[in-house]
Structures are given as structure tokens and as C-alpha cells.
């Protein structure tokens, strides 16, 4: 700084003060991120949410009980009966290991928390980490002020809250932190060119690979950015150091994760990184040659190499394409293909399309999940181009790709959220910086506009300190934004001390009133965001979905605890080795809460097996009985919402059972169930629909409830009201009829004479379903 | 070791519990009368029936069929004779069955006593008890519907009898050829005993048939091809519905719970007259002094009351080759040994069952291994095999269904896991070039670093 002594001293003091302040702000952001996620615990109870978390919880229990080697080699015989599942080789272990380690550390410190408690609070803890990682990332891109803003935004962005409330113990809980942290380390390496950070980056990438299948996003985004840098002529040794070690170490480390294994070098998702790895070496080599050759020689060399290189490239590409094309899915897994072609899954893989979070999002969900950030992102992108650095080009690329992916799958909104926060943080911080500078300039202009150049730094000090003081006051009321602005300004001054920047800054001065007004508007915008986030955290995203609540019209709270009631019944009233069949959504919960063997669960790895269950559910009673009996099923569990109006019940999921079942067993034909293109259960329903097992198990004795069988979800009277079950018997129905459990009747003891019914009731149960299917369906 | 037995006859709850229940009942007399039953009640361990209720149309049958009844008594059964419409009739008391077997010699009864009806009789069977039904020309709808529920269809024409103009029993008077000398027995030593029944069986009664698809019912005594079912006193206006060897004279049905049921269209078959009289088939020249009825009925009732053909499989054991403890889980490609013991009830004790066709399946949706078990002649069956290279939850399955025997069906679940991470081969010979390559690269990199750093 070209300032006098006292100014220098003031600057040093300001730094120290600013650092302490940022530290406390970050701490508060972490606390905020943690606490805002506790609504679910306060409103409901400390309980694991939804479906997948139950599996993760069960795995964590196993890990804490049996140790890491048994976890690695765990063959689970209580799920996917009779196939079983090799858990150790098919699960991303990051989350489990993280929670297991936390539990182990706490226990060795003599803090006896239960595994469940640790699991419930893992996600909020890691959200705090994620917001700190966001601070680091944004700080690398645009300075500390933007970093703090982005961290505060991320701490409460609804999209992330939806996946990380207390109890939502899923891979994404730690994966988002890992994702942001990996990006931070990449940018950090890019900015510093330090091999130390490059190594850390590979380790962070390893943690991400351990945690979530979304790591492929990283291993495609970073090569894209490297390619972008090369194409735009930004190649540097820093870029090389940021990228080459990541690919080499990262791929080696990724291959160590059992679930990834050789996929790290064999599937198309990873090919981009290798291609760019080759390109960057070629480019590095070219730069090296350029350095040692004279320009004329270089030109000759280039023409020579390019002509030879093109031929070689074509040959390699041809081989590569031939290799990839020889595999049926072109080397891409179904999920990744549906990313590139959004209609792919619904066209070819009903099992992927059947998951609601794999559907494309609707427009309102953007407003719901990232709220005002959606408006701030464009401003942030503009700010990133002023000026464009390697780091800011990375975040621009990040936001562009993640916007695309979020448009494909609603689940990937989660990847968009950090990018949107970073962008909005930059936008807010930059605009505050512009407005406050204008105000400051105007204030000085009123007092004495003679000395602008020299007064700039000192006046900014004053304002900054004023701001900081203000910030300290406002911090008590949990409003961090003004203080961040001040931090940003310091950083801005440090970053751009050149005369040119100052001239630019003077040009950007706005009228005083306009600045004040704009700041007020921005604060208002932020306030709206906070209000929305708190509402979303409290109301929209805190329901554990295992316990439901509703408000009656007189304001009373009604709790629907049917799921746990049913699982408790199963665990108390059935044999340990009994098999329970249900649609796959409830598989994880049944194994975790009822401790019973299930046929299929939420890890949808075997389409045929799921299709078998889907076929059974869509078949008439007798055929269904035969399928279930061949799978040794004792109990069938269906979820029915018709009595209380719970919309995500099995009848609403029935179309997927038909589609998935029909995809493998062609005698299940969707048109048989459709009337006017709709799945109807009223008097217009098709006979196939009215005779299928799912209809019967859902509506058995339903007419006894209100006398006419009015389904509150479908808002209609059911088509077939009085019927009897011949091969199943109802053994348990929960309080609100949400879960109904049926038992398979044993084969009849005697065979009657003189009946018209086919007599070979059970003689053919052991034949394979495929042959049964072909037998029953002569047209296929 | 879990005892798995194919004998699924429902055990009377438990004797202690029953006794406790009885203790509180006011009727001390009842206890005294019940105690002998409780002591000798049949169980999984001794499946032969002990207490048999005989329902009669009238008590004169007691004397006219006395040979049959006394032969049962001499074999150790307690016979309890009741009139079919006795109002105090009951099969069970306090939820416990009082009898192990039921003999319905009351073809004409339209309604049983108060506590007994069609459903009660069927429940009796479904809880694993045995039943003998004898009908005749006066068979009521009730008896016919019991038979129908058991898979046997009597001729719907109420006045029809089995008529055979070729293989009728020769007698002094010409008659209408409704007394048949039948000798078309089922070929099964288990059901009819090892001694061949030489003399034909005298039969006079109504015809029934069995649906061919019914896997549980069997024709034990079929009519000859020339038989038909019609009213002997009227002229035949239309072709008879039942003809030839589709007509079954005596049928048995073994329910899935191994309850055994015998149904015949002739009550006279059991009578002293038929037992004693000589027989000559109209088609053959041989005249037997004594009809085959007594032997036939005696052997068949032995089977019905589980004195023969009742198997149990116990002590399923398996372990790795060379070990003795039973593991909770196998690994793929393990070698294992499998044992099971099969015994047959001889009427008094469990004798080793010897056969060379018992098989074990290693089953997961379909059998991956199917091995015939070798026996040591003392009831122990054994085999060894290698676990297939497929992991999953397997079952050892022994399904043994032979004519006349109770069906054995036992399965034992056993998971098979893949290799652990450290159970694979550590060094593979074919991969040595790769090992060499990686070590060469490492060495090369090391040397290169030295050259690059210190060769300026």
C-alpha cells in the first residue's frame, strides 16, 4: 500500500479485527446451519427419516457392532431374499464410516450417545461444515465478503435443508460438504499452484467418492473447466498441478472404494477426465516445445505434429468408439444416460423413472428450493466476469452445468444449491460493495470532494469501521449481511489497489438516494429469503415421513404413526425368519425396524426381482399367491391411504408395479389396467384392475368403514366393494388403515371334488416364474 | 438341533396344559373318564390312532359287523359306538379332540347330533385325524357331501348301484349282478400290505369317481372294465354316467396334513357275511373259501390309522467337510456334508426307513444341487457336495413323496456368502507382467527424479 504510516497501521489493525470478526461470523453461520435443521427433532422427535436413512442407520449399527472388516465383507441375508445383498461391495461407505467414527470418538471420550442419535445429528453437523467450505470456496473466487455471504446463504438454503434436516441420514448429508470442499481445494490449488493442496484435493475427492455416486459430477466438471481454460488460452503450470495429480491420485483412490472399483477406469463417466488428462499433457508439451524452439521452428513442428497427431487421434477415437459401442448401454449407466437425455429413463427404465426424485422438477420447485437466489444468480454470473479469473470461470461453469442437471432430475437441485449460493453471495457482496462505495463517495463529496485519490483508502477505513461496528450490533440480532459487506470491501481494496481500479470505481458511483434505496431493497430481499428458509425448514422439510401429522379444522394436531405400528406388529408377531413382501419402497424400513427378511428394497439393483414383486401385485390372487409362495413369502404388506387421504400409497404407485412388472413379464399389459388412459379404481375400472392383488389387498373390507367405500385419495367410490380373499388372510391393519398386513394362507388341506375350480392348486408352485408367465400367456 | 418332522398331525395342545384345564373343571367324573385318553392320545411321536368313534345308524350294525370291530379292538383301538343322531354327540371338548379317528357307518343319516355337522367333520380331518366313510344305496346327502369335500364324487343318481355282468360274485341265486367280486387292487405294498390279497373282495354298493387331477386321492379298489353304475331295477334309458374302471369302489385320500380318509360305497363290505362267505368270480374258475374282504379291510385300516406308511425325517445336520460344528453361513465353493434321519412308524415304534431314492436339493428359487442320499440302513441318510459358485440364501430341501407314504417336506435355510476380501488369491501368476510393470515404473520414476534434480 502506498499510504502513510498511520494508514498502514490502521490497515493492519483492520485486518486483525476483520479476521476475528469473520471467525465469529463463521462460527455463528455454523451454529445457524446446525440449529435451523433441528425443527424436525423439536416438532417430531429424534427419529431417522424416510426410507434410505433407515438402511444407512442399519448399516451404521452393524459397523459399530462388528467393526470395519465385517462391514466390508457383510453379506446381508435379510434382504433381497433369496438373493441376498453384498452390502460391503454395493454401498457408498462414506456416510456410514463418518457417523461410525463420530460415534466411536464420542464413546472413547466416554460420551455414551446411541448410534441413532449420532446418525440423526450427522447431517446438521455436516451442513455447518458445508457452509464453512462454501466460505472457503467463495473466498478463493471473490474474496472473504462474498465468502461470508455465500456461507450464510448456504446455511439455510431450503434445497439443502430438505436433504439434511436432523434425521435425514442420507449420503447427500455428507456428500454436499465433500463436493464443495473438493471444489474449494481445486480452486485453491489453481490459485496457489501448490502440490500440497493438490494432494489434499485428491483426498477430498476420495472422501466424496466414498460418500455419494454424485462424485461423477466432480470428475466431469473439473475436466470441463480444465478444457475451458486450455481452449481460452489460460493454460498455466498451476492448472496442470491442479488437474494432473487429481486424476492420477483420485482415480487410484476411487478404485479403492469397493462399490466403484474398476468402474473408475471402465465406465464412460470417467472417460472425460482421462481424455482431458491426455490433452493437458499434449498442451503442456506444446508449451514446453514452444519455449525451447524458435518461432519459425515451432511453426514447422506444429504442422508436422498436427498432421501426424490428427491421424493418430482419429485412429484412437475410432478404437474407443468401437469399444464403447460394443457394450449394450454404450458404457453409460442408466442414471447417467438419463442425465444426458432426460427422456431416456422414462422411455427405457421404468424403475428409474418410478422414483419421484428422478423426475424433472417443476418451475415452482426452483422458487421453493432456492428462492431469491434464482434472481441473484445472473447478477453473480455477471460479477464473475468482472474480471474473469480461472476461479470465477470455474464457478460459472459449475452453475451452468448444475442448472442443466437440476432440470433433468429434481434430486440434483441439491447440486445446484451450493452453486446458486456461491453466485448469489458474490452478487450480493458485489452490489453491497458498489452501493456502499457510492454512499461513501457521496458523503465525502458533500464534505470535501477535492481529494478523492488519497481519501479513498482512509475514508473506506472509517466506513468499514463504522460498518463493522454496526455489524457487531446487528450480529446480536443474527443479521450478518452488512458486516460481510465490510469485509468484502477490505478485500476488494487489498485485491485491487491499482490506479486503474480506482478510476473504475469512481465511474461506478451511483446517486446517494438510489444507493440507500437499493441497499434497503437488498436487505429486504435477504429478509424475505430468511423468512422463506425458516418456513421451509420448519414446515415443508421437517416431516420425517415415517410419522405423519395433520391439523384438524379445529386446530388440533393429529399424529399418524401407522408405519411404526405396523413394523412393531411384524417384529412382535412373526417369526424371525419370515419373509415379508411389499413394494420396494418399504424394504429398508421393514428390515431396519421390523427386522424381517424382505424380497426387494430401496436399493433397486435387481430389476427382475422387483418386477417379480410388481407382477405379483398386479396379478389375480391365485397367480400372486403362487409367485409369493415360490419366494417363501409369509406376509404381504401394503400401504393404503384411502381412509385418511394419504396420497403416496400403493394404489398410486401401482402404475409402476404394472410397468416394471410388465417390462420383464410380458403377460402383464398396462392397457389391461387402464380405462381412458387412467388407472381407475371406481366403477369404471377394468376387470383386470379390480381383480388384481393390489386392489384386493388395499380395499378388502374397506366398505365396512363408511358403508360405501369412498376413497379419499382418489376422491371416488371404489368399484368392487364386497369381495372375499381366498388365498390371503388379513392379519393386521393399523389404526388409520395406512398399513395392512396379510398372511398367505397355506395350501388347502383337501382337494374338493365336483368343483369347477382348477385343482392343481400348489403342485406347480415351484416352477419358475418365467415359464409360468409363458404358460399363462399364449400370445407371447 | 431343530427337529423337523413331516408328521404334521396337530399335536393336542400339550398334555400339561390340558390337564391343568381339566383340573379346574367341575366335573371330576370327567377327569377320570378322560385320563386314560390323555395318557394314550396319539402324538407326533406315536402317530397311530388310539381312540375311535364309530357312528352307526342303529346298534344292530355292532353285531352284523362284529368281526371288523373286534379285529380293530384286538389291534388295540378303543372303539366308542354312538348313534349318528345321538344328541350328546361331540368330537371335541374344551377345544381338544376326544378321538383320533372317526368311522362313519351311518350312510343314511341326514343330520348328526347337535354338536356335529359337516364342518365339524371336516375340521376333524383338517386337524389331522383320520376318517372312514362307508356309504351304501341309502347314502344321504350329508355323507355324499363329506365325500365330495374329500375329493370323491358319488354317483348322483340315488338309486344307482354298481352292476357288473361279467365279474359278479357267483352265488346260488342268479340275482341282479350287484354283488361284485372285485380284484383290481392298487399296486402298493404300503397301502395294502406285503401279503398279496388272493381272493376277490365282495362289494355291493354305490359307485364313486375321482378326478384325475386330484393328486391326493387314490383308487384302492377299482371296478372291472365291464362295470357300470345304474339302477338295477329299472331299464337303462340313457348311457350310465359312470362306467368301467373309472368307477372306484374303495378310495383313500391322504390330505396335505397327512390325515387319511377311506371312502367306500359299500357298507356291506365290512359285514360279517361278506367277511365269511366264499367267493367265486363269474369269469374265473377258482373258488375261494373265504373272500378277500377281511384281509383287504384289515390291511387298509392299518394304513388309514397310521400303522404303516408314516414317515418322519429328523435331525437334519450339515457341516463343512472335516468339521463337526454346524455353521451359520457357508461360503461359495465350500464342501459340505449333509445328514438327515428318516424313520417309518411300524405301529409300535419308529423303525429305520430304507430307500435309495431320497434326494436333497440345495435350493434357491431352483435347485442348484440335487443329490441322491446314501443310507446306512439304520435310518441315517448322508451325502456330500460342493456349494455352488452362487451366493444367496439357500435351502436344504428334502421332498419325499412316494405312493402310500406320508409326504416328507422339510427345508432348512442356510445363507451362502461370497469370498471375503482377503480370501481371494493374493498373487496370480498370470498377473506377474503387471507387477513387473508397476515396479519398473516406480524404479524408473525414482531414477528419473534423481537425474532430473541433480543433473543440472
What topology emerges from the helices and strands here?
The complex is a heterodimer of chains A (780) and B (456).
Chain A: H1 5-35, H2 39-43, H3 52-66, H4 68-72, E1 75-76, E2 85-86, H5 87-90, H6 94-108, H7 115-142, H8 144-155, H9 158-164, H10 171-192, H11 195-211, H12 215-231, H13 237-256, H14 263-266, H15 271-292, H16 295-326, H17 334-340, H18 344-348, H19 350-353, H20 363-370, H21 373-384, H22 390-408, H23 413-448, H24 453-476, H25 481-495, H26 499-507, H27 512-540, E3 548-551, E4 557-560, H28 562-573, E5 579-581, H29 587-594, E6 597-598, H30 607-618, H31 621-630, E7 633-639, H32 654-664, E8 674-675, E9 678-679, H33 687-691, H34 693-699, H35 703-706, E10 710-711, E11 716-717, E12 728-733, E13 739-744, H36 769-776
Parallel strand pairs in A: 5-6, 5-7
Antiparallel strand pairs in A: 1-2, 3-4, 7-13, 8-9, 10-11, 12-13
Helix pairs in contact in A: 1-7, 1-8, 1-24, 3-6, 3-29, 6-7, 7-8, 7-9, 7-10, 7-23, 8-23, 8-25, 10-11, 10-13, 11-13, 12-15, 12-22, 13-15, 21-23, 22-23, 23-24, 23-25, 23-27, 24-25, 28-29, 30-31, 30-32
Chain B: H1 15-24, H2 28-40, E1 51-56, H3 60-64, H4 66-74, E2 78-83, E3 92-93, E4 96-97, E5 101-105, H5 118-126, E6 130-134, H6 141-149, E7 152-154, E8 161-164, E9 180-182, E10 184-185, H7 189-192, E11 201-203, E12 208-210, E13 217-222, E14 227-230, E15 248-254, E16 260-264, H8 272-276, E17 279-280, E18 287-288, H9 293-304, E19 310-320, E20 330-331, E21 335-345, E22 350-352, E23 359-364, E24 366-372, E25 374-375, E26 380-386, E27 392-400, E28 408-417, H10 432-454
